[in-house]
Amino acid sequence: MKIILGVSGGIAAYKAAELARLVMQQGHEVQAVMTAAAQEFVRPLTFAALTGRKVLTDLFAIESAIEHIAVAQEHELMVIAPATADLIARLAHGLADDFLTTLYLAFTGPVVIAPAMNVNMWQHAATQANLETLRQRGHRMVDPDSGYLACGMTGPGRLADPAAILEAIEREARKRRDLEGETVLITAGPTQEPLDPVRYISNRSSGKMGYALAEAAAARGARVILISGPVHLAPPYGVEVVPVRTAAEMRAKVMERLGPAGIVIKSAAVADFHLGTVPTQKVKKTAARISLELDPTPDILAELGRKKGDRLLIGFAAETQNLHQEARRKLESKNCDMVVGNLVGGSSDIGFESDQNEVVLALRTGELISLPRAPKREIAERIFDQVLKLRLALHAADGR
Ligand code: CTP
């Protein structure tokens, strides 16, 4: 594999030389890229000698003005070790003021980041927020070790062992474009059911889990169609977003776009009831009390369960109690292959509006798998791992 090794300016820069050696030993090709600060700690010659290639250092001292684009396209994985607090901030905010940061923006493959810094800099809210941004982007972090630091303090901040960084690289390298050739249809967000031209019924779904699934599927090579209720999220890169508002509109778009999809994931929190006839004018406050008579919305998942063919169908169950039983019940009643159950409405830092989630997967095979609390993007990756495993298991059971 062709790997970019980005080195930024910390005392741990010398340990990146050991990492370069280990990565080369695994049979990978390594292109080292150093920031100006890194060169204050280690000379480019060290990396040139180890990798057998000229080290890239300066955006303006290279042969072509678009060399960073060419280098980005030629390589399959980027590892940054050590990543200083400054570099992490520049990556998080998309600054592109030197070769490494410009290359990072032009690079579309997996990124592994191994931070190293003083313990207070590591723990600073600014650094932690920047790290969270990078994690949400799907990059793999190799957290620093705790111990005695060059600054004389003790705590987390020491660059992880090069062997641990190598392991993370190998894991990412195996992480595959394993959804290539696949079409994945995902629904996300809430629906809004109008009561009159200015009011509606909805729920607290933010769409974050569905959008994380769409991002993960696209990164793994799938064509992704994301049918989304109203949310405040940017469309994920490379994903076709189909905006809808009501449950009826969502149903219509799902059925219209179902054809090529081999995997269908219904993470939307669809309203269960709507007003059958919506007044055309705003309802006035004329009575002291009013009551609403609501009709059920179409159950899109149940309908898909009846006509899914050999598609894999994944439903969601957002519950406030009895999570396992409810996930299992919905798996059966809606003829799903997997139901992702999560608890919502209780603790405020997981579930609907949160960037984190903690879920159980009820599978058609009878298995129940718990995924511990993690960023939604990470949970999305684990869900796809299980979806692909499940497909193999079901095919084996079918003798296909
Ligand atoms: N769902 C759907 N269409 C609906 C309602 C729900 O497709 N009209 C889907 C959701 O997208 C989700 C799953 O069904 O994947 C479970 O949604 P949930 O609201 O938890 O289930 P309900 O069928 O409403 O069950 P209950 O009200 O008993 O919890």
Give me the secondary-structure topology.
Layout: E1 2-7, H1 13-25, E2 29-34, H2 38-41, H3 44-51, H4 67-74, E3 77-83, H5 85-93, H6 99-106, E4 111-115, H7 119-123, H8 125-136, E5 140-141, E6 145-148, E7 154-158, H9 162-174, E8 183-188, E9 193-194, E10 200-201, H10 208-219, E11 223-228, E12 240-243, H11 247-257, E13 263-266, E14 273-274, E15 295-296, H12 300-307, E16 312-319, H13 323-333, E17 338-343, E18 356-363, E19 368-375, H14 376-398
Parallel strand pairs: 1-2, 1-3, 3-4, 4-5, 8-11, 8-13, 11-12, 13-16, 16-17
Antiparallel strand pairs: 6-7, 9-10, 14-15, 17-18, 18-19
Cytidine-5'-triphosphate is lined by residues 247, 266, 268, 270, 272, 297-301, 315-318, 330.
Describe what this molecule looks like in 3D.
The protein is an alpha/beta fold. Helix content is 36%, strand content 23%. The chain is built from 14 helices and 19 strands. The strands form 5 sheets. The protein has an 8-stranded mixed beta sheet, sandwiched between helices. A 5-stranded parallel beta sheet has the order 2-1-3-4-5, with helices on both faces. A hairpin with a 5-residue loop joins β6 and β7 (154-158). α1 crosses α9, α4 (67-74) crosses α6 and α5 (85-93) crosses α8 (125-136). The relative contact order is 0.09. The chain binds cytidine-5'-triphosphate (CTP). Cytidine-5'-triphosphate is lined by residues 247, 266, 268, 270, 272, 297-301, 315-318, 330.
